[in-house]
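Pipeline run #58 for the internal structure catalog. This entry was flagged by the ingest filter as a single-chain record with no existing model, so it goes straight to prediction. Upstream metadata was stripped on purpose; only the residue string is passed forward. Reviewer on rotation: M.T. Logging verbosity set to normal.
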Amino acid sequence: MTPKAPAAKTETRTLNLVQAVNEALDLAMAGDKRVMILGEDVGRNGGVFRATENLWKKYGDDRVVDTPLAEIGIMGSAIGLAITGMRPVAEIQFDGFMPSVFDQVVCHLGRIRSRSRGKMSVPLVLRAPHGGLIHAPEHHSESPEAYFCHTPGITVVIPSTPHDAKGLLLAAIESPDPVVFFEPKLLYRAARGPVPAGRYTVEIGKARLVKEGKDITLLTWGAMTVTCEKAAERLEKEDGASVEILDLRTLSPLDLDAILAAVGKTGRCVIAHEAPNSGSWAAELSALIAERGLLRLLAPVARVGGWDIRMPLFRLEQYYIPDADRVVMAARKTLAF
């Protein structure tokens, strides 16, 4: 018998998160001529965070389109392109500019499949940087995920590692339905990790178990995942607590099985996020845990989020967005209940 050739090994490199996003976009465009990018400064300048760097040179004006400063125009154009056969990736330059697109998102993006009785779909990805702590001016450091999670028909994704950013973005571009894809701007260059070369996808709708523990569960997403890792390190070193961390990755649809399993295992839960607590996605998570896992709880679910005010200017943002100290304080209170 002829011996089988050994399977080729996939090269793995260390990339930061913005490099992983750029690589995913490049692979998607190379593999499917329907994929195109449109947004403010995404072409010649390569995007304000350089997420689309060099793609205009490689694919040209027809597929990497510099648009006017008109978010509702970007969104409306992308929806039209998607329902007529293209797979657009629309970039909103900062998350704080996204209220301009609500009309298109709420009235059209999430409804077209239902409105057309399944005859039309909107294979569109809406990308935007997410969160604060980069010393930006007003409207540049928001956490608007709850608005989009509340809109039926839309998937909402927020990765926290370069590996997940690449795999989830490729999966989002392949999806037949619209995906809002938030990228934590704090982690664009701060998060570095192994990323396989070539094409792979990470399943949308599945949470990532960052760390196993038995005393308390931290539920989180985006840049707060790193904050929770710092908090867990302190809790284990200073309090001897065994901490489980679950990075949701996809906020809608939720991986409810993973959430209930993680919380049921420890009986205690702290939800950490950047947005204001009132009406937040953390509030929805807390309600779901109470409705479906109450008898396994040993303490009330705690939420650590931003304050119920607008995101302050950069000199005060470190007092607004939770740090490891606030997560540790909430965890200690929950453990002592």
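catalog note: The chain has two domains: 13-196, 208-336.
catalog note: The longest strand covers residues 269-276.
status: ready for reviewer M.T.
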